[in-house]
Structure prediction request, 116 residues.
Amino acid sequence: MTGTEPHDVPSAAQLVAAVRELLQSDVLPAVEGPVRFHTRVAVNVLAMVERVIELGPAQAREHAARLAGLGVADEAELAAAIRAGRLPDDERLLTALEAAVRAKLEVADPAYLTAD
Prediction:
């Protein structure tokens, strides 16, 4: 924390991590069937929330800069420009699209980014 936040410790990220760890270490081993499945889903969702809190602000800044570099304001405008053929199908566009997908995977499931 930088000292400018209006909330005391623990931070939101620490609270989410504590709940995820509790579910993973204490609840998951003690439940079966549908409750076990739903607990695993909850653990995965909380892990995603942790990554959004950690990575989201920087990813948003980088994404906005990439979009601005392509001359579009948001993803809807990017999609429309691609469909209309207003953007050249070049390395710059491909790099921007790859970076956007990589950022989404870093949050959704970083395991997809590991090499086999």
